[in-house]
Amino acid sequence: MNNAFTVDLEDWYHVCNVEELSDPSLWDSYESRVVRNTETVLALLREYRVKATFFVLGYIAHKEPGLIRTIRKEGHEIATHGFYHRRVFEMTEDEFEEDMGRSIEIISSITGERVIGFRAPEWSIRKHTPWALDILRKLGILYDSSMVPLTRMGERDYPLYPVKFNTRYGDIWEFPLTTMRLFLENLPFTGGLPLRMTPYFYIVSKIKIMNRKGHPAIVYIHPWEIDSERPKIELPLSRRFMHYFNLKSTSQKIRGLLEHLSFAPVRDVLGITA
């Protein structure tokens, strides 16, 4: 069974809820490392002949259109991560629609193709933002990957596996973050900090068990996670742990996953044709 391999295409300074990093007017003053880091990710995917979905920030697409063309030329799917890396629950409906519309427009103008997928920064679609899926579908998005069946980070009763939701503008797929059951909670383990914390053998064995039961997993990575030389920034303790813990394990674990599991872009895993 194919699982979905995904990349959240953002730079090292795209951190939510940190005042000095959340202001887009300051971003041009930071060193950009997204091109070199993404080229490293592309080389890994090329080595293992894996195609992925890149959830691209509209801001990155605007600044580095050549990078987006390179990703698409290598056969990967280009989806959107919003424009300014803002969490959905921090925006009004109008602000979200404007941010999404701007991102879709710039990405489509670069690739010449329709954008059909979205992932919210920090998996930030919540119960109190029911309008988000309606707006996504209104703008032509056919699948979302922004829900986490986890207390506080998401909603505990969110779906565990891909499912379709009905909106005012038609059906939309939801591919939630893959989790494992531990006592009474669902915990992520296939990307970001959870991937770096979870033993590799457990990750592979758990995904294989899911696949045998007919369920695909979703793996994700940020290009900055494989950059040991990126600038260090002062962050609150919890975010410092999230951004710096065990970074040296990322490349090795990703290599193992790419070698021992089957992967494809999200649109192919869900069987979407557009």
Question: Can I get a quick summary?
Answer:
With 274 residues, this protein is an alpha/beta fold.
Write a structural description.
The protein has about 270 residues and is α/β, with parallel strands linked by helices. It has a single domain, classed as Glycoside hydrolase/deacetylase (TIM Barrel, Alpha-Beta Barrel), CATH 3.20.20.370. Helices cover about 40% and strands about 15% of the residues. It has helices at about 20, 35-45, 60-65, 65-75, 95-110, 130-140, 190-195, 200-210, 235-245, 250-260, 265-270; strands at about 1-10, 55, 75-80, 115-120, 145, 165, 170-175, 180, 185-190, 220, 260-265. The strands form three sheets. Strands 1, 2, 3, 10 and 11 form a five-stranded parallel β-sheet that branches. A four-stranded mixed β-sheet has the order 4-5-7-6. It has a two-stranded antiparallel ribbon with strand order 8-9. Helix 5 (about 95-110) runs parallel beside helix 6 (about 130-140). The two termini are about 20 Å apart. The mean pLDDT is about 95.
What is the CATH architecture annotation? Answer: Alpha-Beta Barrel
User: Which range best describes the helical content: under 10%, 10-25%, 25-40%, 40-55%, 55-70% or over 70%?
Assistant: 25-40%
CATH class: Alpha Beta
What's the mean pLDDT score?
A: 93
What is the radius of gyration computed over CA atoms, rounded to a whole number of angstroms? 17 Å
Q: Helical region count? A: 11
Low-confidence stretches: none
State the end-to-end CA separation: 22 Å
